[in-house]
Design goal:
The relative contact order is 0.12. It is built from 5 helices and 27 strands. The protein is 6% helix and 53% strand. It is mostly beta strands and 346 residues long. It has 3 domains: 97 residues, Immunoglobulins (Immunoglobulin-like), CATH 2.60.40.10; 110 residues, Sandwich (Immunoglobulin-like); 113 residues, Immunoglobulins (Immunoglobulin-like, Sandwich). The two termini are 31 Å apart.
Length: 346
Amino acid sequence: MLPFAKGQQGLTFVNSVHDFAAVAMQDTLLHRFEFRNNTEKIIRIKEVKTDCACAIIRYPESDIGAQATGFISISYLPYKVGEFHKKFEVHTSDGHKEELELLGEIVPFQDYKRLYRHLQGPLRTSSKLLHFGRINTQAAVTKKFVFFNPTDTLIAFTGEVESPSHIKVMFDTLHKIEPKSTANIYLTYDAVAKADYGNVEDSLIIFTNYSPMPRIHTIVSANIEPHFAPITEETLAEYPHLDIAERHINLGYLYHQKIESDTIEAVFELKNKGFARLEILKIILGQGCELFTDLESLRHIEPGERRELRIRYTNTTRGKQTSNLILICNDPRAASQTIQISATVR
C-alpha cells in the first residue's frame, strides 16, 4: 500500500487525483480512492457530492474507526470521445471536505497506439505492468489482461511460458490474435504461495510464433495484504493492535560527512495494545534507510509488550529529504502502516 500522503487530519487519501490516460469509448472506468481515518476518533462519510450524472459512487456508510482504512469506489460511464475531468467532494462528520478528481481521455477503439501504449514483445498492452492491484491471502485471484496485435500477421501463443509457481497462465481458446485485434490472457495469482507482502513484482515470459520477436517478457505486480475473517466491533478487541508512539521522526540538520562516518539512528517504539500476539510480517524500507534491528525480534510481540524499531539513516542527498517505511502486520485495523523519517542534509 502506498503512503497516505494528503492531509494531516480527518480522512487522508493515498492519492486524491487519478488519471486514466487514454481509454476506449466502450469501457466502464472504475477507480478506488483509498483512505485512512488519520484521527483518534470515529468519522462517518456524510455524502459525496458531484455534478456528474455519469458516475456511480459507493462509500462506507458505517462508522470509520480511528486509524481504520477503507475506500471510495467511483465508476465513470463514458458518453463521448474527448478529454474529461470530473470532481467529487467528500463531506465527513468532522466538518472536513476533501476533493477527489478523475481525468483522462476517451479515444475511439481503433486508435490503438494511444489505447495500447506499451510494447510487450510484438504485442501491445494498455499498461506497462500486468498489475493485480490489492489482493490478500484468502484465495487465488484470476484477472484478465488484454493484448493487442498491431502487426499485419496473425500471432499465435505457443503455450510455453516461464513463470513462478504462484502465477498460472491461461489463454483464449484459439491461442491466437488476428492482425489489428485483441485477445485475452488470464493470470491466476496465488498470494499464499507467493509468501510475501506489500508491493511485489515477478518476471513472466510468454512465447509466440512471431519469429522476429517470439518472446513477450513482462512484469506481473500485486499489492499483497493479510486476509482477515469478518470482524465485528465485539471481536475486534480480541485481535492484536499495533500502536506506534511517534510515526514521524525529524532528525533535523545533518551534514553528509557525518552521515557517511557515523551511525545516525531513528528509533520507533512499537507496542501491542491488543489481546493477541502481534506479528510484524514485513518492513519495507524507504530510500536511505537500513534496518538496524533484528527483524526476528519484531516477528512476535505479545500483548502489552514493547519493541524498538531502529533504523539507520544513510541518505546523503542534500536538501530536505523524507523517507517512508511501511510496516505490514496482522492488525486488522490497519495491516499496512506508514512511518516517516525526515532530515535536512547539508
